[in-house]
Amino acid sequence: MARTRVPIQVIDSAGNALAGASVQINTRGGGAATVFAGEVGATTVTNPLTTDAAGRVSAWLDRGSYDAVISHASITTYTDQFDSSPGAAQSIDTAWLADGLITAAKLGTGIVTNSHIASGAAIAYSKLALTGSIVNADIAAGAAIAKSKLAALGIVDADVSGGAGIAIAKLALPGGTTTFLRADGTFVAPTVGATSLLTDQLLAVDTASWDVQNIPAGLFLELFLYVRSTDASNTGSTVLRFNNDSGANYDHQRLRAKGTTVDTQENLGVTSGRLGEHPGASAGANKFAVMHAVIPHFAGSTDQKSVTSRSHHAEGTGTGTINLEQHGITWRSTAAITRVTIFPIVGSLKAGSRLSMLEA
Fold it and tell me: Running DSSP on this structure, what letter comes out for residue 10?
């Protein structure tokens, strides 16, 4: 299995490489990690490590999420989080690949044979040489055959099963298709809750956060974001808090695709929930992230609150600069949500960023 070299460089307050600093490598949220002397092999090195004249350490880690606790007499001890992934091309092992991740374009012609195909595989009809060869015995009794494929049929009431799923548009109902049949045999019109726009904020200047307060009770909140920040890096993170709660009461799970790489991250007991990543100041000009989040049952006061969010952004135009993410957030509180604050972890929201919040 390939490993990743520890990506740590320690510098002092003047920006100079710091030799002799202690670097303690721990698994994320756990104890001391096993640190190896090389990309392959079983030889380990002592943990904590000590930086060389370049402020770096010579050590390798298996894949996973890690915390580096860095200390030295001339600096304040701090923790740097990072993920380890295989370092060399063509070194990804099976455990890294989600089911269904490999596309047909990655397989050579003729590689897949009949023995590789499960009996229940959903093979498109166009891929099979079956023209004119299907007979009645090949068709299951419950097969959904389009009517256009059958000879003209004189269907009468007796041909229709009592439990048949007949589309409402096919029935002559009082009021047309705007009514539905109740169990008592009467027809009523459906009632649909309206969605209203709570706020739409387009920033004219760089701003620290969006802070939406006094949110009225409803069924769900829906957030649409267009985001860039003043963070000096290529990429920053957009997070939220509920009811001004800045305690370690949020749990977060991320699934990200970047280029051809797919990775995950879990954060438990953190002080905010991550909605997605966005371009920073070093990203390509005029690039913004788009995010869509849904908060169902936000006004409930019995259960904890959950959020799902999807995000996309491009840092540049080259390969490996396009990000697509799915996020899940749990707020460990049963309180009804009346306030939502959204902000970047580093820097401010860039002018041109926009929040639209809807409620139903």
Answer: -
Predicted confidence band of residue 186 (pLDDT cuts 50, 70, 90) = low
Match 């919040």 to its residue by tokens: 357
Homologous superfamily (CATH) for 4-84: Immunoglobulins (2.60.40.10)
- pLDDT at residue 66 above 90? yes
Domains 4-84 and 196-359 share a fold: no
Sequence ranges of the domains in the chain: 4-84, 196-359
Calculate Rg over the CA atoms of the chain. 28
pLDDT in tens, 68-120: 999 999 999 999 999 987 655 455 655 556 666 676 666 667 677 777 788 77
CA 304 to chain centre: 20
For residues 55 and 60, give the distance between their C-alpha atoms in angstroms, rounded to a whole number.
Answer: 16
Q: Above 60 in pLDDT, residue 155?
A: yes
Is the peptide bond between 344 and the residue preceding it cis, with omega within 30 degrees of 0?
no
Residue 190 · residue 180 · CB < 8 Å:
yes
| Confidence class for position 50, pLDDT limits 50, 70, 90 | very high
Q: How confident is the model at residue 170 (pLDDT cuts 50, 70, 90)?
A: confident
Characterise 190 by phi-psi region: left (phi > 0), alpha (psi -120 to 50), beta (else). Answer: beta
Residue 324, strand partner residues: 257, 312
* Ramachandran area for residue 41 (φ above 0: left; ψ -120 to 50: alpha; else beta): left
Residues 6+ apart with CB under 8 A from 341: 209, 210, 211, 212, 240, 241, 242, 244
Sign of the four-CA dihedral 151, 153, 159, 165: positive
Please give the structure tokens belonging to residue 360.
């139903």
Structure tokens at 242: 């509920």
pTM over 0.70: no
CA distance readout (Å), 349 to 208, 226, 233: 6, 10, 14
**Which two structure tokens, joined as six digits, stand for 103?**
């596309």
What CATH architecture does domain 196-359 belong to? Sandwich (2.60)
